[in-house]
Amino acid sequence: MGMISEFREFAMRGNVIDLAVGVVIGAAFGKIVTALVDNVIMPPIGLLIGGVDFSDLAITLKAASVDAAGEAVPAVQIGYGAFLNALIQFIIVAFAIFMVVKAINRLNRKPEAAQAPAEIPEDVQLLREIRDALRR
Q1: Where are the alpha helices (DSSP H) in 41-79?
Q2: What are phi and psi of 51, to 5 degrees?
Q3: How many Cα atoms are found within 13 Å in the side-chain-facing hemisphere of 94?
C-alpha cells in the first residue's frame, strides 16, 4: 500500500494537476489554431495567389506508376504545403504563448521601490553651500 499512497500523494500535488490542466488546454488550443490556419487563414492566401490549396502543394520526385504486377505505386512527393501550414500554426501558437508569458510577467513584476537619491559628494555640497551663500 505504500507505493499506492506515494503515487496518490504525487498525483495530488498542485504542480501535477496544473500540468495536466495545461496539457489539456494546450491540446484544445492546438486544435483551434489548426482549424484557424487550415480553414480561415490559408484559403484567402491561396485565393490571392491563384486558387492554390496550400495543403496540396508538393514537389513530385517520382510520379505515380504501375509496377509489373499491375499494382499502383504511389508518387514520391515532398509536401511543402503541409509544412507551410504547420509553420504558420507554430508561429501563431508561439505568439500566443509569448503574450501569455508577457502578461504573467507583468502581473508578477514587483513595483520598484523609490530609489534613494544618490549621495552628493562633499566637495559638490560645499560648492552648493557657497553658491547659496553668495546669492544672499
Answers
A1: 42-48
A2: 70, 35
A3: 6
